[in-house]
């Protein structure tokens, strides 16, 4: 997993477009989205407030972190943001990526529009499910028109509530999104398991991604808490077409090979997950030969 923050990845509003690329055997896509409402102004030029669907700040700050209250985007500013995504997609293709993954998950800007716990707008981008999903679907449409539907994927986490970005009816939200996405014939939908909900690690879950998996017409990717065995089981049981790995891939640069050989895995180190060091915690985990 490689995170890229570059000068090309700035929106017109000066906010960084966070790009996360995932190494894959055949298809290399770049994931981008805007980490807005829960950001600190120091990342924005001139200390501007991060933009969001709302101007409500996060109510219970994360320990050791202070977030600048967001600025609610005006309705007339939204087309510019949609266009930023279109330009970013074009840039990604020109830079040589095979495709892009739109980041509509985990409390990023798109997620903040979709979730009713955050979005308190009264314009055509707030209120009903259709209105809350309008922003994300406008972005999908703009990118599909720009680079072609076969190069576009999207990441969604309807059940997850990171950074207080939760929804009162995640299944309705997930279903509305996948059914709407069917119209654009995008390459894939990547969805995060309900078990990734904060504080739910040890809870038995009645919620599942299966309704969305069944309703989506194209490749469905699942993520969140998978290991080799559970991933293989998910594919065998047709719960998804692809399984994405986060922490295990971070700690094992040769994860596909290790899975193939059923070799032991390096443990990940939580302490170095979000370091600012370009190497420590990112590219310093050993390959299989180095550990033998
Ligand atoms: C260091 C680190 C950075 C991450 N950054 C992001 C991110 O920017 N956006 C996102 O949606 N998920 C991010 N995640 C979450 C992963 O993409 C993945 O959904 C999560 O780790 C659950 O999958 P896993 O159980 O296979 O690790 C990050 C995870 C880690 C460990």
What does this protein look like?
This protein is α/β, with parallel strands linked by helices and 292 residues long. 29% of the residues lie in helices and 15% in strands. It has helices at residues 78-94, 109-114, 129-147, 170-182, 210-215, 228-236, 247-251, 255-261, 288-291, and strands spanning 2-4, 17-22, 29-34, 51-52, 71-72, 99-104, 152-156, 188-192, 219-223, 242-244. Helix 3 packs parallel to helix 4 (170-182). It is globular, with a radius of gyration of 19 Å. Mean pLDDT is 86; it is low at 1-26. The protein binds flavin mononucleotide (FMN). Keywords: Flavoprotein, FMN, NADP.
Radius of gyration: 19 Å
> How many E-type strands?
10
Q: Separation of termini?
A: 23 Å
Bound molecules: flavin mononucleotide
Q: Strand share of the residues? A: 5-15%
- Please outline the major beta sheet: 8 strands, mixed
Shape field: globular
Overall helicity? 25-40%
Cofactor: FMN
Region (Disordered): 49-68
Domain NADH:flavin oxidoreductase/NADH oxidase N-terminal: 54-264
InterPro entries: Aldolase_TIM, OxRdtase_FMN_N, Oye-like
Topology:
Layout: E1 2-4, E2 17-22, E3 29-34, E4 51-52, E5 71-72, H1 78-94, E6 99-104, H2 109-114, H3 129-147, E7 152-156, H4 170-182, E8 188-192, H5 210-215, E9 219-223, H6 228-236, E10 242-244, H7 247-251, H8 255-261, H9 288-291
Parallel strand pairs: 3-6, 4-5, 6-7, 7-8, 8-9, 9-10
Antiparallel strand pairs: 1-2, 2-3
Helix pairs in contact: 1-3, 3-4
Bound molecules: flavin mononucleotide (FMN).
Flavin mononucleotide (FMN) binds at residues 18, 20, 105-106, 155, 192, 196, 223-226, 245-248, 250, 273-274.
